[in-house]
Write a structure and sequence with these properties.
heterodimer, A: about 325 residues, alpha/beta, TIM Barrel, eight-stranded parallel β-sheet, 8 helices, 16 strands, about 30% helix, globular, B: about 250 residues, Elongation Factor Tu (Ef-tu), domain 3, six-stranded mixed β-sheet, four-stranded antiparallel β-sheet, 13 strands, binds flavin mononucleotide, binds FE2/S2 (inorganic) cluster
Chain lengths: ~325, ~250
């Protein structure tokens, strides 16, 4: 009899029973009514801010070709309500809980880290640096290496569990930002957050979402996300969590080959609530078919020798 | 199960969904996945009111209009395919105990969430008066279903003959109000909602919103304002039906 393939992976000090977890903002305890959350490699919360905020005005969602736009704007009930009401609901399940945190200034990240440190039941933090930096005219916090390094170092000093950093793809050099996160003390890099996008309804002469610009996600962004994962994985020694457009087991294998140790699934859970659990089952079957003993064999195993493409390829 | 046009404007989709038919309440909805088979797009499922359901056969019925890419794709589904359907979702209409007479005000496709309410209320012996409004006759839906389910009065009004004029509708409502009305239920029109709230009677309104999850975790169906501490209620989980207090 052939043993089932080994799906376990390690994100620094955090062992996972399989590499599939939800993307922040695309998961919540509510899904427990529809899927078996205990099958997931980890759970990830929506980004929590220190103070309550209401997010953006409607409409917050629009369909695009093979993707979607959201201008939700990260509403958060703040640290207090998170600890008292949301966090306890995750205790119904066993996968490690990764809490996403955000802020609009460097200080705000340190504040939320301080308020959540020593709170039981948090296995790791994911620092979402795709938030506008109010101290730098609204440029994303994650657009500047020095700011990312300062945020990560400050959060790291204040908490006792691993700190992951979730990068924005809306930058010139994702490698430089990934290195800054690693220097700041990150245990893993999550790549990537939503691409900045936009949709217009010419009949009404209005943008389709309440804010003109919105986050572009779903299968359409997969090539960009895959490229970002590849670049980040080349740039740092810490593990990379791949996210962006993943909807099938083939997508998962592509990200792992490009350098991802684990993956997150966002928009595809909206399409079908059971996407993650179906992918986990399919991953086991696929590895078994291919005679792969451990998924870890495939991490970063992309072959770039001839005759296939060499690195780095330039468009045109 | 079955799928086809009801009028030139609307299509009807009948689904075998016993688990949903078992639990459905008037005003609740389902999330329908538009992507077929192994397709990964369109990404967003569509929220759809449950037009009617039958516990005995496990059938639920959705009525919709083709407005964009998603509903266009939906219109191409054929009988025999399996469509991912999550529901019943949200908080539906409530008929408070002791209710004797109610008025339903619906506009266009918005009447779809009222027809089941008419049936349930009439079955409880409530005197149901419905006014259904639309741009033209082909855009009216649910009138026959309301009549068949025992509504005392079903008035259908349209824009192209002027019968849907807000003044006329207001006068109609005032006459019903004079009979004594315990609850007004509204769906599909801000102007009908204004008329309803102006009567001082307690109003339940069913709201629409763009949705991604339909169950309360994505926050796509709410609204907020930078600088504000709290976002609006979630249409999918706290609604879609909201009770407005009697003035
Ligand atoms: C509705 C919605 C809400 C999101 N909220 C957050 C959030 O609060 N924090 C965060 O870091 N990313 C958030 N994201 C981004 C996702 O976590 C993910 O990075 C992105 O959607 C790309 O993955 P996908 O193509 O699988 O959706 C959100 C995405 C969507 C669609
Ligand atoms: S549709 Fe996701 S929270 Fe309402």
């Amino acid at each position: 009899m052939i043993a089932a393939p080994d799906l376990r992976v390690d994100l620094g000090d955090l062992p996972l029973r399989n590499p599939v977890m939800p993307a922040s903002g695309c998961f919540g305890p509510e899904l427990g009514d529809l899927i078996d959350i205990n099958r997931l490699g980890a759970m990830v919360t929506k980004t929590v801010f220190a103070e309550p905020r209401s997010g953006n005005r409607a409409h917050r969602l629009a369909e695009t070709y093979a993707g979607m736009l959201n201008s939700v704007g990260i509403p958060s009930r703040g640290a207090r309500a998170f600890i008292a009401e949301l966090l306890p609901r995750y205790r119904n399940w066993s996968p490690p809980l990764i809490v996403s945190i955000g802020g609009l200034t460097v200080g705000a990240y340190l504040e939320i880290a301080e308020r959540l440190t020593r709170v039981a039941g948090i296995a790791a933090f994911e620092v979402n640096v795709s938030c506008p930096n109010l101290e730098a005219g609204g440029l994303e916090i994650g657009a500047e290496p020095q700011v990312v390094e300062a945020v990560v170092r400050g959060v790291k000093e204040r908490v006792e569990v691993p700190v992951f950093v979730k990068l924005t793809p809306n930058v010139t050099s994702i490698a430089a930002i990934a290195r800054a996160a690693e220097t700041g003390g990150a245990s893993a890099i999550t790549a990537v957050n939503a691409l900045m996008g936009m949709a217009v309804d010419w009949r009404t002469r209005r943008p389709r979402t309440g804010t003109a610009m919105a986050g572009f996600t779903g299968p359409a962004i997969k090539p960009v996300a895959l490229r970002c994962v590849w670049q980040a994985a080349q740039a740092v020694a810490i593990p990379v969590i791949g996210v962006g457009g993943i909807a099938t087991v083939d997508d998962v294998l592509e990200f792992i080959l490009a350098g991802a140790t684990a993956v997150q699934i966002g928009s595809a859970t909206f399409t079908r609530p059971d996407t993650m659990v179906r992918i986990i089952a399919a991953l086991e079957a696929r590895l078994s078919d291919e005679g792969v003993v451990s998924v870890r064999e495939l991490i970063g195993a992309l072959r770039t020798d001839s005759p296939s493409a060499t690195v780095p390829m330039q468009a045109g | 199960m079955d799928h086809g046009p009801v009028t030139s404007e609307y299509l009807r989709l009948g689904l075998h969904a016993p688990a949903i038919a078992d639990l459905a309440q008037p005003g609740q909805f389902v999330m329908l996945t538009v992507a077929r088979d192994a397709d990964t797009a369109p990404v967003l499922p569509r929220p759809m009111a449950i037009f009617r359901w039958e516990r005995r056969t496990g059938r639920i019925e959705i009525v919709y209009r083709v407005v964009g890419e998603g509903t266009h794709r939906l219109s191409q589904w054929s009988v025999g395919q399996v469509i991912v359907t999550v529901g019943p979702l949200g908080r539906g209409f409530v008929i408070p105990s002791g209710t004797r007479r109610i008025v339903l005000l619906g506009r266009g496709i918005g009447t779809c969430s009222l027809t089941a309410l008419a049936a349930v209320a009439a079955a409880q012996g409530v005197d149901v008066r419905a006014l259904l409004s639309a741009r033209h006759a082909d855009a009216l839906v649910g009138g026959d279903a309301c009549r068949a389910s025992g509504a005392r009065e079903v008035r259908e009004v349209v824009d192209n003959d002027g019968s849907s004029d807000i003044g006329l509708v207001g006068a109609w409502l005032k006459e019903r109000r004079a009979l004594g009305v315990d609850q007004i239920y509204v769906c599909g029109s801000g102007r009908l909602l204004d008329l309803a709230t102006a009567t001082g009677v307690s109003v339940q309104v069913s709201l629409e919103a763009h949705m991604a999850c339909g169950i309360g975790y994505c926050h796509g169906c709410a609204s907020g304002h930078p600088g504000l501490g709290e976002e609006s209620p979630l249409v999918c989980r706290d609604g879609p039906v909201f009770q407005l207090p009697a003035v």
